[in-house]
Amino acid sequence: MKKTKIIATIGPASQEEEILKGLILNGMNVARINLTHASHEFCKDIIQKIRKLNEKYHTHVSIMLDTKGPDVIVGKFENGSAYLNTGDKIRIYMNDLLGDSTKFSVSYPYLINDVKVNDTIKVSDGLIELQVLDKGHDYLLCEVIIGGFIENHKGVNVIGTKLSMPFLSPEDEEDIKFAHEAEVDFLALTHVSCVEDVLEVNDVLINLGDDHIAIIPKIENERAVDAIDEIIDISDGVMIARGDLGVELPFERVPGIQKSIINKCHRVGKVSIVATEMMSSMENAARPTRAEVSDVASAVADGVDAVMLSGETTIGKYPVETIDVMTKIIETAEHEVNYYELVDKAYRTEKQDTTGSIAYSVVDCASRLKACAIVTPTMSGYTSRKISRFRPSCPIIALSPDEKTVQNLTIYYGIYPELIKPIKSFDEMMEKSTTMAKQLVGAENGDRIVVTGGYPMKQVKHTNFMKIEDL
Fold first, then answer.
1. How far apart are CA 357 and CA 157, in angstroms?
2. What pLDDT, on the 0 to 100 scale, is given for residue 456?
3. Where along the chain do its domains lie?
4. What does DSSP say about strands 120-123 and 128-135: parallel, antiparallel, or unpaired?
5. Residues in the chain where the model's pLDDT stays below 70
6. Which class for 42: exposed (0-12), middle (13-18), buried (19 or more C-beta within 10 A)?
7. Whole-angstrom Cα distance, residue 455 to residue 325?
8. Are 412 and 289 in contact (CB under 8 A)?
């Protein structure tokens, strides 16, 4: 049973129920839908299918939506693409028009006001690089520094420049309202630059009366990297979106930033997600490259909560096979993780309170006694998240009567949540813990589990017991 979670982005290649079933049964923990490319109707269809499959197969795959954010994209081209030759001159128009090898348009009409002569503009994940030579009435005149194919609706990055467009557009606010009404579990925020961007979304959720949706800012530019401590502090976790990050910053800096952010999240008990091109060769091939295998394994060794797939499962030829391969890589890599180092790192920064002290003791005992599982009956999920922070070597089975708590815990390292009926006595709690350990991790007579939580569950707001149970 893997502890590092898998987020899979759903698109044309994975929208059919049979494919979604394959993704779930092979290890997908969170289904992500990118609202930049998906309509509300598409989202409703996928959410309905995921929940139907969850009910049928007794799984708890949760839902993540990505906001569009202050994104700039190119318009359409004749035949869907054009080739830009290095050294050629090209015009970028502020008004919509059909592009070719000499011109194209962008979605943001005020780009001409924000950029300066000699600014660098990158397109298509940084594969194409342009330099601004001059400004016309409604266009930018640029030189193609690095040429290549450019396709419809590819992203545009102005390096080193913060655009004046608002973080949340009216369309974004409608998308957040939709996410609230659809009762999704996570909201990933695109192109966050500062703490105020996150607080703006939080205010929208407060006004909607939504205290369930977890906020996950995407770290995609240097301004977000500079403000990372403050962003982590007010968020439920962060996504290291290496695509735009590697365009905005020198790509050689990305691995160090990734490790640093994973470490920062681990120290404060927030979710960390590594995304972009983890298994991109499997969009067209039935197996990954050795470098991709090492990339996934390295993130696992660093103690990341979740790894994410994008094009591999949205447009790739092998979406189910990609999940299966990634699961195998994770499970193998987790055998090599230095769990003592991870628990020591967490312990040195843990608050000296009752729940933190018991959580550390639970993980330490589970490791020393080679327990097959830690079981945490919980109302809010707080105890389970605390234990997850200490990165135990065995799975954490979180038992909760609250469905929203169960869905929210799916993304955390090592936690496998289960929905149960309210527990009325301590004996019932221990009996249920034993039963679920046998059912979920195949515990047998002679095995050992560690049970911890707060009892009575509805009256105690902190963890107050730990029990070692021999089956």
1. 46
2. 74
3. 5-69+169-334, 78-158, 339-470
4. antiparallel
5. 457-461
6. middle
7. 41
8. no
Check if the beta carbon of residue 13 is closer than 8 Å to that of residue 314.
yes
How many other C-beta atoms are found inside a 10 Å radius of the C-beta of residue 446?
Answer: 7
β pairing state of 89-93 and 103-105 = parallel
Task: Render pLDDT for 419-457 as a digit per residue (tens, 0 to 9).
Answer: 999 888 889 999 999 999 999 999 898 999 999 988 776
Paired tokens of 167 = 């973080």
Strand order across the beta sheet in which 128-135 lies: 103-105, 89-93, 139-146, 128-135, 120-123, 156-158
Q: Are 393 and 345 spatial neighbours (Cβ–Cβ below 8 Å)? A: no
Which pair of structure tokens corresponds to residue 308? 């994410």
CA angle 221–227–233, rounded 5-degree value: 125
- CA torsion sign for 235, 241, 245, 247 is negative
Domain 339-470, CATH: 3.40.1380.20
Given a contact cutoff of 8 angstroms between Cβ atoms, the answer to whether 142 and 132 are in contact is: yes
| The domain made up of 5-69+169-334 is a member of CATH 3.20.20.60 | yes
User: By C-alpha distance, which of 3, 26, 103, 51 is closest to 390?
Assistant: 3
Domain 78-158 has CATH 1.10.10.60: no
Question: Over 93-159, what HEC string results?
Answer: ECCCCCEECCEEEECCCCHHHHCCCCCEEEECCCCEEEEEEEECCCEEEEEEEECEEEECCCEEEEC
Q: Residue 461: its pLDDT value, please?
A: 66
Report how far residue 362's alpha carbon sits from residue 187's, in angstroms, rounded to the nearest whole number.
31
Decide if 78-158 and 339-470 have a common fold: no
Residue 344 CA to residue 338 CA, distance in Å, equals 10
Report pLDDT for 348. Answer: 83
Instruction: Summarize pLDDT for 161-217 with one digit per residue, the tens.
Output: 888 999 999 999 999 999 999 999 999 999 999 999 999 999 999 999 999 999 999
Cα-to-chain-centroid distance, residue 177: 20
The two structure tokens encoding residue 390: 């200490």
At 286 the three-state DSSP class reads coil
The token duo for 233 is 């502090």
29 — phi, psi (to 5°)? Answer: -105, -30
Among 162, 77, 70, which Cα is nearest to 128's?
A: 77
